[in-house]
């Protein structure tokens, strides 16, 4: 669930280790098992991505303050990339596991080229954000902190959007569900790409196990029970050749969502390149779904 594909062997090894831990380790201390589960789930790569060539021109680097549960001052590292059109559509970018912002430049640039101003964050534990082993709870909190910043940057609720890739899609769905309850912080649309229904289901699919993984995992990321309540138009994108998260999960999310909604399956695309292979259709879908005008159509 990363911005650039790791080796298949490594990916399978992570999930097989997780399955073994779940099957064998339960009697030996749930708290330690939960820590190991989070370490394997997020699989954080330190430092910059090997293909990173620098922060794009025009990007401002921010540090967003967080007060932790124990009163410690922590920060989220963020990129703010204004659009060429002032006060135009503004999008919060939420990435998946393993890689930090330095691996996200291509996808962020594509969204910026479509006409979006983009606020992108690293969750705590990633990149230059505060050092913390992430959890489902902490990444949800981080997304909410980032959204408050985006609301300041874009006060017009009609121009605020949420985007999530892979695990970031689950975080984006949760955020959309949360902000719909706040009239001052609502979003106008949700874009999710290469994501899944819930963590247990995708883990079971990847490792091909009959274990009741959904009920054993402490991290749930249960999107299928939230997506009908987000209250905004939803664009769901998935590559048909995704080797990590089968596209049937996006079909299930689409079936559970309410109108207006759209499912865009990109033929031949894998977990990471739907925005490249399906660029024209992707841009058209964004423009048509959210009524954003020709500047966000196909290039």
Features:
single chain, 299 residues, alpha/beta, Rossmann fold, 8-stranded mixed sheet, 17% strand, globular
Verbal overview:
With 299 residues, the chain is an alpha/beta fold. The chain has one domain: Rossmann fold, CATH 3.40.50.1820. It contains 10 helices and 8 strands. The chain has helices spanning 8-25, 30-42, 105-113, 136-153, 167-179, 199-207, 213-216, 248-256, 274-277, 279-290, and strands at 60-67, 73-81, 90-94, 117-121, 160-165, 189-193, 234-239, 261-266. A hairpin with a 5-residue loop joins strand 1 (60-67) and strand 2 (73-81). Helix 4 crosses helix 5 (167-179). The model has no long low-confidence stretch (mean pLDDT 89).
Write the layout of secondary structure elements.
Elements: H1 8-25, H2 30-42, E1 60-67, E2 73-81, E3 90-94, H3 105-113, E4 117-121, H4 136-153, E5 160-165, H5 167-179, E6 189-193, H6 199-207, H7 213-216, E7 234-239, H8 248-256, E8 261-266, H9 274-277, H10 279-290
Parallel strand pairs: 3-4, 3-5, 5-6, 6-7, 7-8
Antiparallel strand pairs: 1-2, 2-4
Helix pairs in contact: 1-2, 4-5
Brief account:
With 299 residues, the protein is an alpha/beta fold. The chain has helices at 8-25, 30-42, 105-113, 136-153, 167-179, 199-207, 213-216, 248-256, 274-277, 279-290; strands spanning 60-67, 73-81, 90-94, 117-121, 160-165, 189-193, 234-239, 261-266. An 8-stranded mixed β-sheet has the order 1-2-4-3-5-6-7-8, sandwiched between helices.
């Amino acid at each position: 669930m990363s911005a650039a594909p790791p080796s298949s062997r490594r990916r399978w090894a992570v999930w097989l280790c997780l399955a073994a831990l779940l099957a064998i380790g339960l009697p030996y201390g749930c708290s330690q098992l939960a820590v190991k589960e989070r370490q394997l789930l997020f699989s954080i790569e330190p430092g910059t991505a090997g293909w990173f060539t620098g922060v794009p021109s025009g990007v401002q680097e921010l540090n967003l303050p967080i007060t932790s549960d124990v009163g410690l001052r922590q920060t989220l590292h963020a990129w703010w990339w204004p659009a060429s059109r002032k006060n135009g559509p503004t999008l919060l970018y939420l990435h998946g596991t393993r890689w930090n912002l330095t691996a996200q430049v291509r996808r962020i640039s594509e969204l910026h080229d479509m006409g979006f101003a983009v606020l992108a964050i690293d969750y705590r534990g990633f990149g230059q954000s505060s050092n913390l082993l992430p959890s489902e709870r902490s990444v949800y909190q981080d997304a909410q902190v980032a959204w408050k910043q985006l609301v300041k940057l874009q006060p017009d609720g009609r121009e605020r959007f949420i985007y999530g890739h892979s695990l970031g899609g689950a975080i984006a769905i949760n955020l959309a569900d949360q902000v719909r309850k706040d009239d001052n912080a609502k979003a106008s649309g949700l874009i999710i790409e290469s994501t899944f229904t819930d963590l247990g289901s995708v883990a079971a699919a990847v490792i091909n196990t009959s274990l009741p993984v959904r009920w054993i995992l402490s991290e749930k990321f249960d999107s299928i029970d939230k997506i009908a309540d987000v209250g905004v138009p939803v664009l769901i994108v998935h590559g048909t050749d995704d080797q990590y998260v089968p596209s049937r999960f996006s079909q299930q999310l689409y079936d559970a969502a309410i109108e207006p909604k759209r499912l865009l399956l990109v033929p031949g695309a894998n977990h990471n390149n739907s925005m490249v292979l399906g660029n024209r259709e992707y841009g058209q879908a964004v423009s048509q779904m959210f009524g954003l005008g020709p500047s966000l159509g196909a290039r």
